[in-house]
Each structure stands twice: as C-alpha cells, then as structure tokens.
C-alpha cells in the first residue's frame, strides 16, 4: 500500500511536466535551486584539437558566446581526447579532461554545474562524459549535462535547415562525419534520411569510421547524376580528419571517380546557427531536468499507460 501511495504521489507531482519534451523532462530551474553560499559554473566540454586556427573559430568562439549568454557564471573548459591533451601538453598547453575539471570545480567550492559538450551525436564521447559525471555527482548539489547537437528529431530538422541554407540544387554537398564503431553511428544515417525526406536529394552524409561509409555515400552520389561536389566536414572542428582524411583521401577518391571537387574546410562550430543550437540545449537543461526511465516506469505501473 505504501508503495502504491508513493507512486500515486509521484504521478501527481510529475504529471504537469510530462507534456514537455515528449514526457522526458520536468521543469526545474537550475539557478533557483541555489541557496546562499552556493556557487554555479558552466563546464564546456570539447573533443579538442591541436590546430589553433580551427580552435579559435569553433571551440573558443562557442565558449565566448556562452560567456556572453551567462555573464555572471564561471566558465571552465575540458577536452575529452586524451591524445589531444597529451600532444598539447608536450607543447606546454595544459588542458584538463572532464573528470579533472569537475574535481577541480568541487575543490574550488562550486556546488552547481551545468555541462555542455560540443559533441555531434549521442555516442561514445557522451557516454564517457556521463560516466565521469556519475562518478562525481555526490560532490555537487546539482549537476546537469546538455544534449549533443543531434538528439531529438527537432534537432535533426534544425540542423537539416542549417546545412541546406543557401545551397545549389545542381551541386552535390557531401558532409563527412567522424563516425563511430557502435550502433550510435545510425544517427548519421538518420540525418542523411531526413535530408532526403525534406527534398534535399543533393545532400549526402558519409563517415570516416562508421556508417554510412565512403562507398555507401558514393553509391548515392553516382545515382544522383551530379558531377560537381562540395566536400565539407560534418565535425565541430576542421582539424586532423578534415585536413588529412577529407581534404586528401576523400577528395582524391572522388576525383578518381570523375567528380569535380571543391573543398570547404570549415568546422560546424564556425556556423553561428550551430553555436546557437548548442546554447539552446544548455539553456533548456538550465530550466529542465530529465525524468529517469525508472521514475516513469513507476508511474506506468499505476496508470497502465504511457504518459504524453
């Protein structure tokens, strides 16, 4: 009986918030939960790059934009790539990984932390970040992670609009993502599908280390009959992969297939609209908390139905 009463109380408490975000979020103002003496910080998390030119235009640009949106909040930065951290360290440039940055925030007296990663998909980098957060969560009163660029179907729609803005239907646009080795690589295929579904049949998505691979993209490209290609990284920064894999390997392979190739080596992070989408994710998480699946299942046990 006590369990049923507790679940009914949970149902009554959470019900008003189920309409937002398809039943996945409840309203919860991050800053209003703070008490006198509490300190808030934002941790921007990036994969990182060893290339200073693209870093200034992407990582630094997004960080600066977040500072302007949250001028009263301390902003810190972390890189997830241990290889990049090591290489930068050898040059005398020190970057912390997320776990180190979070422990430092705790040591510095911060009680509330908002985290926003410039990650593209909800893949292994986000999984790693979430594990870091799980490890230090007891150290903070409130800690939240914003969603990656592509998370909800609405995110895909917005990104599709951004990618196709001011493009020529007689030119093939090939967007090259990093890709990943597990099932989350399907998110790139979802973007490709949505581009086509929205009528942008001259846009093609491929990945360097996942699906769709170069051959998958090439088959669609050949079927389109288009001969001029604009080759662009679908990555936050235009670093190592863009300058080597895309600008050399992919470009050469396409030219060998008879295509005329123009390179646009700009990271997604250079696009103000993409920057704004990340900031919208950060702001959303500052006003909402995700409802855990077990909390939702406890309600379903009583109601017998999915809440919307």
Explain this structure.
The chain is an alpha/beta fold and 308 residues long. The chain has 2 domains: 25-29 and 37-148 and 272-291, Rossmann fold (3-Layer(aba) Sandwich), CATH 3.40.50; 153-269, Rossmann fold (3-Layer(aba) Sandwich), CATH 3.40.50.1400. The chain has 12 helices and 10 strands. A 4-stranded parallel beta sheet has the order 3-2-4-5, with helices on both faces. The chain has a 4-stranded parallel beta sheet with strand order 7-6-8-9. Helix 7 (153-164) packs across helix 8 (186-197). The two termini are 26 Å apart. The model is unreliable at 1-22 (pLDDT under 50). GO terms for molecular function: metal ion binding; sirohydrochlorin cobaltochelatase activity. One of its GO terms (biological process) is anaerobic cobalamin biosynthetic process. This is Sirohydrochlorin cobaltochelatase.
List the helices and strands and how they pair.
Blueprint: H1 2-14, E1 25-27, E2 40-46, H2 52-57, H3 59-69, E3 74-79, H4 82-90, H5 98-107, E4 112-117, H6 124-136, E5 142-145, H7 153-164, E6 172-177, H8 186-197, E7 203-207, H9 214-224, E8 228-233, H10 240-256, E9 260-263, H11 272-287, E10 288-290, H12 293-303
Parallel strand pairs: 2-3, 2-4, 4-5, 6-7, 6-8, 8-9
Antiparallel strand pairs: 1-10
Helix pairs in contact: 1-12, 5-6, 7-8
**CA gyration radius, whole angstroms:** 21 Å
Strand proportion, as a percent range, falls in: 15-25%
Q: What's the domain count?
A: 2
| CATH topology title of the largest domain | Rossmann fold
CATH top level label of the largest domain? Alpha Beta
